[in-house]
């Protein structure tokens, strides 16, 4: 159902639907929904020109709560559906909502192919390192050894590094944010919306029922400063309660230094256009449980301006029309060699 | 010198050679020439499963069967009259199809020791030398030698020269059947415009073959197959996949929509993708997806966006689309799913024809997920059926399955094509805020008298709504777990499909009386064989009729009644009995199956004989 | 003080509360206690589709229906006698199931303004205050308050304290039905061994609830449900998915093979994976794949390697497996495909039960790809049926589909379990170079009298061979495009499946005479409802019998004959008519469908009434 | 069919079957088959303990020509089938044969998941940048703009960089070879066979019917030296007819230098254990048509020793047996709470 409102000055509320939001109390999804609504309201989108496409999962319930057009499709296929939609309706703003299971397990193939094709679609990957909707099995992002319903003795799979995988698939926009940092998330959402091409945003999202605290070390006041690194274009990589630490590149190896001990230019300056550096950033993926590992980066890792699939597709059509002229049905039907029977 | 010319009504030529010998091209060139000559034609290409099976072996033989006649014909026919055998394997593989007294045109060069060995002829045996071919008329010619001679000073290498061999044979056959070289010459000129020396070589050899007949002493008979008295009109020859592609383009235009074709290549469906990709200037968007699931999902996305979304594959790929088809059933949006069937199960016989995916079309999904199922019955009928399938899908907001098969897809026939303006417009039921908003609220799943919901697509102001694969409330479309609502929605989705029977033609009798001893009921590509068989049976005075079902779900309302007017009903299928199963599940009258599961179409004779067995009873 | 004790034969309690209230646990604890008490039991959990639907709303209500009796019972029953309502929504959602005069145990704390509003009761209306519940006996207790009181000095926080509420209710019911607290106490001690304070809190509240009954003035009646006179033997209570898992482990051991279970989580099948993963010490290898296609393919790889390969899912996931099932049909290797059915189509009603994937099981693939289809009929029957399915698959080298559903999967009942030694060994037909080599050559597709080929697995010397999805030669198994061979192989694959009918029991009559006015023919989870209905109909003197089909493909040889002894045949199904469709397609006798598509099982009454309508005719 | 032979001293011939090899004359597949047969013969494998698993495609016909056990399965699923086989039969030597369509298009998801799980399986990816069996449509590795049956106006997709994708999926062995260099191919096959874990070998294979000469620039005598770079462990990256050129790393950017102009230590020394460098190597992927681009590397890009899935799976089982004892069926069947009815 939809109710008419004047879309002049949208507020976050206008983007809500009449449906009860059915996530568990305390679920990280709420905050993401909120940030999305306010970001889009600010951006002053047209509701009728916006479409949310999701697969299946707790996260994939998202479209029901946005008063735009929306498809809550089948497990893993949201990116494929979005591709067909964007290919035929380039003017629409298309958002894909997916989870770590939906996008990386059953939907892995469609994800990597849409990244390389680079439709202008924004993909929000809710990573809670668990299958929430099916009540708690491990996912392709769960750390090895995780004890879940399906792995009472601990999971065996070496997990995916989602952003590294996306780099490998030649994504043109890669970012990471977290449910517990609304401001940062809004900024990333804005940037993704602005990027022309496929944007992949991994959001660390807490499933407080089946995997509570998976990202606590990055979100908890006490530990956040030590373990997170917020990327700022053109700025050195620094972190710590007083920004006392920085990252320096030693050949191919990032290492932590005391800002005090080094001169500014020794520090790694963030350049989201540098693919080599971006690849290394995605590899700053130490197990947080590990002693003095590297901090986990958040923000925009990489962005590149590459042609959009829907554009070149349209160009070919326009070109064909230019060369052969608007298709004429009778010409088409009769083909090249006709004979008359009298 | 003069040569006798003999009239003929109906000729079947089988061009057979190594996959490298270009027999498919030779066949299709002779086809268009005969078509232009005004004959009725029917063709059946038969290639090996491998891209290139081992040269010279029976597995590597590629054949093209062409039937052309001065009367109506509906199949490529049974007995071959002229067999062109470019090598020993080609002869071995096809001799059984040649009728006694038929002609063999043998390329002697293809019968050397090596070729005989590869064709697995016994030591020292050479059919051209021993008496094994006495029942036939054998015309030997050393095509290779003569082609090379013709091109000694062409400056081309032997490899290129030998590629012209098929033109020599073609030229000779043109002479033999009094055909003009024009259309073939034009073809060569266009095709090799950029390679003058190749062009000239082909033209030269083509003529050489023709003159060989003219000048050579040995053959003095030529044949003349007058143009058929087909209904007056303008004709072209068309292949099934091509006709399907054209139908889709026309349907989209007639509905005022863009066409989106999401597909993943698979034999024998790929040619539809190839054909559509050539017509981008008609606003056709083709999308080669990463797999069949992505292909159908992209098409669903396109349909949701307001295009005519179409996806196509063959059996194995359709199996992968089952879950997504269920989604489209639940969303109640238009979607056309094309299955160009091939031999199954599993990878099966990819290059052979079969009708064994009917049950999959009807039942191959989880839950109660009814769809509409249509099947074209001949190459040109693909055009009409594709448009009809699109019409139903767009006007009734329902996924439609379209079941073609390898025989139809690759076969060709003359087509008296319509004028675009004669084709009826398709009217999707788009939503409209003006009338559909109910004090400010939009109810996306409200239905009209046909139980069809309106099509609200992104961009339509104030009609924003969410759809999905979970059960939805009858009115609001919101997710609903209510027990009564679920039962209601399951019934409504089925009733919507069944109501389509009010919008399709009643089942007609193709041929024969409204009542009689035997009704031969067919679907899909068995049309030609049944039609021919029934014509002959009637001619012999039997009370036999032919009805052909295009609408397999829902059935035409009067189907049971049509059947009830016959003592017996026979259902020939290229499968182990599928339509017969549906009929027997639904109606009390029991139909009798006739099945052939050899990757090959029925011959009229097979059906005729089976019918007679039943009639004596 | 003393209290009257009244005898009862058959009690149905429905525990209902917010998904957070732990009703499922409360129900299952009462279940095991009653089971241990020797009652016959039958349960039916009914959860909301969301992990946690909004607290306090009707959508968020989670229910657990428990029936325990001193007589044989086959269903969770129709009319509830005691309704435990932890909040207003729980009452609203379930009141219609409570029989007139039934008891409501209401947690007053769950009927405050907030809860009443969330449950959408009209302004100011409170069922506990107004007269709307006059038809029932209402027992109010402020569970929250009393729980908190009991734990004032437990040192726990309110959140933890409130988590013990359900124990209070449980304790009270134990008192009310004269139950011992032992097994629940043991359970609590084990579960919270590591958290002593939580353990003690739960124990304390459990007793508090019990004593409340004991000491409280207001209720003076207690009930006693004597142990049922079940056949003598050793019993346990078991859930369907659990029984399936145990059956698989036993089957593998009985065949001397390892068990490989490749699966991708999906409701309601996931619990089989969870259960199997707990038994690694039985050599069980569970593999959570990236999707359903990988899951079945991994299982095919395991089968090819000589393990018992099993894969499981629910409808949408099975739809994705269709192509791979076709491969297994073509390879002719063992493979067990489990479908725990749920409401469809598409995502449908994930947490509700349905039998709507039967057609998909039989026809959901491309080409002629026959498989064996079996369905268990009750939680404990899953054990036997799983073993039987594995036996057929391993001994006949054929994929077997096993159709359970949400009702069986999550339901539980007492099970007189067998001794391992009583279970017959399974004998796969392994190849053996000694006898199978035919002067040095191995022919992997030679067959025995059952048309079963031998199972040659990697590691067997001199038996190397290649298998694949392309059609294969009848003897050598090499790729073959030969038309005759294809038809022969299609027939052989079907004949192999049909021959299995020689190895399965004939269809028996569960209850009633061999002939009569009406046969109620069921399959799967409708067993209990039909059984109960037929018992009552017979008691009322009707000539009604019950037969239940475990083997859906192939059918038992005598099925048609069994049906033919009845004037009418009724087929109740939780779908829109699927078995009835198969029966009517295959046999001349017409069966009559009875369908319920509400995501809920039939009640015995519904079936009984329908039967009587037919009997008056 | 199979015929008995004494497996003592295997020759390549012993590994051939009685089936006619059905590839087009001149197809690159022949050479790969030959190298495989001789490599395995040399390695002295046991035929009965070796299994070839393939999907669908010309390349996937491969198993029919190896007198070992073999499955010619369905399109894209070979890696999934191999996973189940290896999980249950760790002692077998398992080879996956796949094509650029089979592995990267329909089979993309199974490929990346098997790479992260790291079963000890060898994957041979025949990359001919075309769909051969279906007669010539473009594939996920076809360069943009390729004119094929399905793209008469040129393909639009930005192609995958298969080895970069594999790195993104945390593969533990990544290599590239070509049909036209038998010696190199045998060496790579040996190394892959030796690697414990999943080996991904991309082989440039010429489809002379539908995509003839796609790799000519790398295989043709005239151009090979200029455009190929053969990686040797511990050796500097050098190429050219006289090895006159070398690669130097300038920050993250590889650049071509004249060996003469620089000192040996300035050159990039190949270290297949260095993930950062390996990632950059996979990115040496310039369009050969491009003027003075970087040469294309061949050889072993990366190898890492990571636990094998089948091993830890077995360990869990052994551990469970240790702790709980061999499963006893009666215990299993009766469960924890039993009652007697007398
Ligand atoms: C084809 C299919 N397979 C499996 C499922 C069951 N299923 C639904 S959601 C899901 C995974 C959910 O995990 P994730 O994508 O991480 O989303 P979350 O619930 O954690 O937000 C699964 C396995 C399904 N609905 N359909
Ligand atoms: C499910 C399914 N979809 C599509 C096909 C058709 N098909 C067979 S092989 C192939 C691609 C072949 O390309 P590649 O994997 O590169 O192998 P190549 O032939 O080039 O060696 C396709 C699309 C199929 N057999 N099955
Ligand atoms: S299960 Fe987890 S992810 Fe799903 S709604 Fe609840 S808290 Fe959120
Ligand atoms: S089509 Fe290409 S890849 Fe296939 S066999 Fe022929 S040459 Fe080789
Ligand atoms: Mg998740
Ligand atoms: Mg290829």
What would you say about this model in short?
The complex is a heterotetramer, with 2 copies of chain A (342 residues) and 2 copies of chain B (617 residues). With 342 residues, chain A is α/β, with parallel strands linked by helices.
Helix-strand topology string of chain A: EHEEHEHHEHEHEHHEEEEHEHHE
Overall average residue pLDDT of chain A: 95
In percent, how much strand structure appears in the residues of chain A? Answer: 15-25%
Helix content of chain B: 25-40%
What fraction of residues of chain B sit in β-strands?
Answer: 15-25%
Count the helices of chain B. How many?
21
In what order do the strands lie side by side in the largest sheet of chain A? 3-2-4-5-7-6-12-8
The count of β-strands of chain B is: 24
Largest sheet of chain B: 7 strands, mixed
Categorize the overall geometry of chain A.
Answer: globular
- Chains forming the largest contact: A-B, 63 and 84 residues
Q: Distance N terminus to C terminus of chain B?
A: 58 Å
Oligomer: heterotetramer
Please, what is the average pLDDT of chain B? 92
Low-confidence stretches of chain B: none
Query: Structural class per helix/strand content of chain B?
Result: alpha/beta
User: What does the radius of gyration of chain B come to?
Assistant: 27 Å
Terminal CA distance of chain A: 60 Å
Could you characterize what this model shows?
With 342 residues, chain A is an alpha/beta fold. In chain A, 30% of the residues lie in helices and 19% in strands. Chain A has 11 helices and 13 strands. In chain A, the strands form 2 sheets. In chain A, strands 3-2-4-5-7-6-12-8 form an 8-stranded mixed beta sheet, with helices on both faces. In chain A, strands 9-10-11 form a 3-stranded antiparallel beta sheet. The N and C termini of chain A lie far apart (60 Å). In chain A, 57% of the residues are buried. Chain B is an alpha/beta fold. A 7-stranded mixed beta sheet of chain B has the order 11-10-12-13-15-14-22, sandwiched between helices. In chain B, strands 3-4-2-5-6-7 form a 6-stranded mixed beta sheet, sandwiched between helices. A 4-stranded parallel beta sheet of chain B has the order 21-20-23-24. In chain B, helix 1 crosses helix 7 (182-191). Chain B is globular and about 90 Å long. Chains in contact: A-B, A-C, A-D, B-C, B-D, C-D. Chains A and B meet through strand 1, strand 2, strand 3, helix 2 and helix 4 of A and helix 1, strand 9, helix 9, strand 11 and helix 11 of B. One iron/sulfur cluster is lined by residues 23-24, 27, 29, 58, 128, 132, 207-210 of chain A.
């Amino acid at each position: 159902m939809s109710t008419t409102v004047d879309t002049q000055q949208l507020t976050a509320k206008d983007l809500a639907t009449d449906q009860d939001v059915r996530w568990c109390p305390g679920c990280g999804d709420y905050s993401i929904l909120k940030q999305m609504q306010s970001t889009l309201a600010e951006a002053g989108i047209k509701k009728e020109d916006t479409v949310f496409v999701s697969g299946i999962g707790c996260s994939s319930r998202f479209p029901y709560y946005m008063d735009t057009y929306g498809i809550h499709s089948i497990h893993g296929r949201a990116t494929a559906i979005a591709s067909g939609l964007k290919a035929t309706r380039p003017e629409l703003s298309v958002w894909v909502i997916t989870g770590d299971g939906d996008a990386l397990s059953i939907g892995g193939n469609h994800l990597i192919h849409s990244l390389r094709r680079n439709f202008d679609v924004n993909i929000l990957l809710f990573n809670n390192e668990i299958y929430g909707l099916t009540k708690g099995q491990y996912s392709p992002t769960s750390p090895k050894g995780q004890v879940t319903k399906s792995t009472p003795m601990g999971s065996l799979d070496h997990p995916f590094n989602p952003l590294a995988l996306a780099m490998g698939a030649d994504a043109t926009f890669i970012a990471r944010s977290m449910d517990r940092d609304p401001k940062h998330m809004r900024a990333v959402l804005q940037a993704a919306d602005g990027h022309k091409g496929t944007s992949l945003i991994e959001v660390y999202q807490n499933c407080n029922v089946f995997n509570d605290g998976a990202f606590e070390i990055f979100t908890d006041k006490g530990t956040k400063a030590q373990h997170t690194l917020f990327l700022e274009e053109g700025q050195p990589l620094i972190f710590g309660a007083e920004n006392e630490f920085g990252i320096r590149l030693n050949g191919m190896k990032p290492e932590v230094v005391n800002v005090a001990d080094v001169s500014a230019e020794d520090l790694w300056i963030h350049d989201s256009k540098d693919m080599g550096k971006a690849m290394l950033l995605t590899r700053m993926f130490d197990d947080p449980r590990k002693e003095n590992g590297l901090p986990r980066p958040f923000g925009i890792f990489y962005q590149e301006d590459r042609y959009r699939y829907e554009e070149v597709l349209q160009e070919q059509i326009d070109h064909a029309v230019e060369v052969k002229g608007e298709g004429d049905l009778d010409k088409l039907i009769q083909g090249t060699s006709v004979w008359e029977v009298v | 010198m003069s040569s006798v010319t003999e009239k003929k009504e109906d000729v079947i030529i089988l061009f057979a050679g190594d996959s490298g010998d270009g027999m498919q091209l030779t066949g299709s060139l002779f086809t268009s020439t005969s078509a232009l000559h005004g004959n009725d034609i029917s063709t059946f290409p038969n290639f090996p499963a491998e891209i290139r099976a081992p040269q010279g072996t029976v597995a590597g033989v590629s054949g093209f069967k062409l039937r052309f006649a001065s009367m109506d014909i509906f199949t490529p026919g049974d007995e071959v009259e002229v067999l062109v055998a470019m090598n020993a394997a080609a002869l071995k593989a096809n001799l059984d199809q040649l009728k006694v007294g038929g002609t063999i045109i043998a390329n002697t060069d293809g019968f050397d020791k090596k070729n005989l060995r590869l064709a697995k002829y016994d030591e020292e045996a050479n059919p051209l030398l021993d008496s094994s071919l006495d029942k036939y008329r054998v015309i030997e010619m050393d095509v290779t030698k003569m082609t090379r001679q013709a091109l000694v000073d062409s400056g081309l290498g032997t490899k290129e020269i030998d590629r012209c061999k098929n033109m020599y044979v073609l030229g000779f056959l043109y002479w033999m059947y009094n055909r003009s070289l024009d259309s073939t010459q034009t073809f060569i000129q266009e095709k090799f415009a950029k390679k003058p020396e190749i062009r000239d070589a082909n033209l030269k050899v083509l003529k050489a073959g023709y003159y060989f007949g003219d000048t050579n002493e040995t053959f003095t008979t030529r044949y003349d197959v007058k143009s058929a008295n087909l209904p007056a009109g303008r004709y072209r020859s068309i292949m099934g996949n091509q006709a399907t592609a054209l139908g889709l383009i026309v349907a989209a235009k007639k509905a005022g929509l863009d066409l989106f074709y999401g597909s993943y290549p698979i034999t024998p469906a790929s040619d539809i993708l190839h054909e559509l990709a050539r017509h981008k200037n008609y606003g056709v968007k083709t999308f080669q997806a990463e797999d069949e699931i992505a292909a159908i999902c992209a098409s669903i996305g396109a349909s949701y966006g307001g295009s005519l979304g179409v996806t196509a594959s063959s059996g194995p790929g359709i199996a992968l689309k089952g879950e997504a088809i269920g989604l489209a059933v639940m969303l109640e949006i238009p979607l056309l799913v094309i299955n160009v069937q091939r031999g199954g199960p599993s990878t099966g016989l990819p290059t052979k024809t079969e009708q064994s995916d009917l049950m999959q079309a009807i039942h191959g999904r989880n839950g109660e997920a009814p769809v509409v199922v249509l099947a074209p019955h001949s190459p040109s009928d693909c055009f009409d059926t594709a448009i009809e399938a699109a019409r139903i899908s767009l006007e009734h907001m329902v996924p439609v399955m379209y079941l073609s098969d390898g025989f139809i897809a690759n076969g060709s026939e003359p087509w008296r094509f319509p004028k675009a303006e004669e084709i009826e417009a398709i009217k999707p039921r788009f939503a409209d805020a003006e009338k559909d908003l109910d004090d400010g609220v939009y109810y996306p799943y409200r239905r009209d008298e046909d139980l069809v919901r309106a099509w609200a697509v992104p961009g339509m102001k104030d009609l924003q709504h969410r759809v999905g694969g979970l059960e939805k409330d009858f009115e609001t479309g919101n997710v609903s777990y209510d027990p009564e609502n679920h039962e209601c929605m399951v019934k409504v989705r089925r009733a919507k499909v069944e109501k389509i029977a009010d919008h399709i033609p009643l089942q007609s009798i193709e041929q024969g009386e409204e009542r009689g001893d035997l009704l031969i009921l067919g679907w899909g590509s068995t049309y030609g064989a049944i039609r021919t068989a029934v014509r002959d049976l009637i001619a012999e005075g039997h009370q036999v009729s032919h009805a052909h079902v295009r609408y397999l779900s829902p059935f035409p309302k009067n189907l049971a009644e049509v059947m009830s007017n016959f003592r017996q009903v026979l259902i020939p299928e290229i499968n182990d009995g599928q339509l017969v199963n549906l009929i027997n599940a639904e109606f009390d009258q029991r139909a009798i199956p006739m099945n052939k599961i050899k990757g090959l179409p029925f011959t009229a004779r097979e059906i005729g004989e089976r019918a007679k067995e039943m009639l004596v009873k």
